[in-house]
Amino acid sequence: MNGRPISGASVGTRARGSKGILALLLGVLLLAVTACGGGGDSDSGSGNGKGKSTGSSTKADTKVSQAVVTIAPKDGTNGVATSGALKVSAAKGKLTEVTVKDGKGNAVDGAITGGGATWTPSTHLASATKYKVHAVAKDADGREAAEESAFTTLTPKNTFVGMFTPEDGSKVGVGMPFSVRFTRGITHPDAVEKAIKIKTEPAVDVQGHWFGNDRLDFRPEQYWKAGTKVTVTLNLDGVEGRPGVYGKQAKTVTFTIGRSQVSTVDAKTHKMVVKRDGKVIKTIAITTGKPGYDTWNGQMVISEQLRVTRMNGETVGYGGEYDIKDVPDAQRLTDSGTFIHGNYWGGDAFGNYNASHGCVGLRDVRGGGDRSAPAAWFFDHSITGDVVIVKNSHDKTVAPDNGLNGWNMSWSAWTA
Questions:
Q1: For the residues of 314-340, what is the DSSP string, one character each?
Q2: Domain boundaries, the chain
Q3: SS3 label, residue 391
Q4: Tell me, which fold does domain 158-257 have in CATH?
Q5: Adjacent-strand bridge partners of 181
Q6: For residue 300, what are the CA distances in angstroms to 4, 257, 329, 339, 371?
Q7: What region, left, alpha or beta, does residue 24 occupy, with left being phi > 0 and alpha being psi -120 to 50 degrees?
Q8: Parallel/antiparallel/unpaired status of strands 94-102 and 162-165
Q9: 359 catalytic residue (yes or no)
Q10: Which of 3, 82, 224, 305 is the most exposed place for a label (fewest CB within 10 A)?
């Protein structure tokens, strides 16, 4: 009995002693860990540089660029004008990158100007189209700022298109201009002409000339060189041709210049000399306009070919003087009704005297069935764009806009 209290007391003492030692060891360990990882407060002001590198780097990486990019129109804007509305600018910095794309990923050309202060498009925008803009500028320390915007251009209520010749993919003669007739009168000709680009292989200078406000023709100074490939880009979609009237046409047209054929009609000798690539290939007896109905002088371009057509004097102001329902092998030279065509009713006029109402007539048979007849031969050996020159007639020179006959205008007048 006497041993129990002593034994019990001894056990309790050992238990308390073990816990105290454990607490002491943990405290020492904690102090050691704190001492190894600490020192921030004491070292931060000591000037020995400990910890400063990391702190300084963090401040440099998080400093905001001072450059400010502004995009007009604002993000989400609708009904934006196709010209004059888009502009990107930078303040307290310089623009380094600007991209503008439509929904199909087509980029809009433009240029950064003013030493990086602004960007503007070099062309108009298409109508009813959504565009996205991404712009980047750098401040004086090289830090970048970026901005993005999306907007949609207006949907026009009134539109126009250009009806053109020659057709896409065609092969034409050396005299063929590229001629566009617009469905609405144009009062902003510079904007419309700028939207039509012509590229040639081999390269040659091609210039446009306006006839009135609804027709624009393009040609080189001299006849095209045989074999020239011509590509025309009609970027009229979005062009404001007149107040509130916009183009809705975006098309690429290609055509090729064939062999050179220039035929010269002499109204005095009643003969036509046909030259192919500079060499005479045929001489044909002809008849031209009789006195009072003289044929135009000048350079004329074949613009249309008709195997058989009706010719009625009523359509050209000659009343009921003639109405021939089956004129064979007819090729148009002017809008006013001058043709070079087959004639089966002319008797002995060919090569002898002038008997027509202004056209150039070649011997033919009714219906044009004999393809060896002079008119049939000439028709079969001609293409639109070939040149027919008339000389020694008693009439004046044909007007440059009467058909595709701008060659009767000097280059200085054409480009004025």
A1: GGGT-TTS-EEEEEEEEEE--TTS-EE
A2: 68-152, 158-257, 261-415
A3: strand
A4: Immunoglobulin-like (2.60.40)
A5: 163, 215
A6: 141, 17, 17, 10, 24
A7: alpha
A8: unpaired
A9: yes
A10: 3
Helices (H), 264-397: 374-380
Nearest to 116 by CA among 138, 101, 99, 133: 138
CA distance 85 to 120: 9
Phi then psi dihedrals of residue 374, to 5 deg: -55, -45
DSSP-derived pairing of the beta strands 360-363 and 339-343: parallel
pTM: 0.81
Residue 183 CA to residue 249 CA, distance in Å, equals 12
**Cα gap 137→373, rounded to integer Å:** 74
Closest CA to 134 of 91, 101, 93: 101
Q: Which of 124, 209, 270, 341 is catalytic?
A: 341
Q: What integer pLDDT is reported at residue 61 of this predicted model?
A: 53
The total of other beta-carbon atoms located within 10 Å of residue 170's CB is 16
Q: Which pLDDT tens digit goes with each residue over 184-227?
A: 999 999 999 999 999 999 999 999 999 999 999 999 999 999 99
Specify the CATH number of the domain 68-152.
Answer: 2.60.40.3780
Residue 233, pLDDT score: 98
* Options 124, 209, 357, 359, the catalytic residue: 359
Note if the bond before 189 is cis, omega within 30 degrees. no
Least confident range from 39-43, 164-168, 176-180, 284-288: namely 39-43
Q: In whole angstroms, what separates CA 341 from the centre of its chain?
A: 38
Which single residue is written with the structure tokens 């371009």?
301
CATH homologous superfamily of 261-415 equals: L,D-transpeptidase catalytic domain-like (2.40.440.10)
DSSP-derived secondary structure for 15-37: HHHHHHHHHHHHHHHHHHHHHHH
* Structure tokens that stand for 258 in this block: 């064939």
The neighbour count for residue 335, using CB atoms within 10 Å, is 14
Q: Is 341 assigned a catalytic role?
A: yes
Two structure tokens written together for 172: 């034409």
Pair type for strands 158-160 and 245-247: parallel
- CB distance 145 to 166 below 8 Å: no
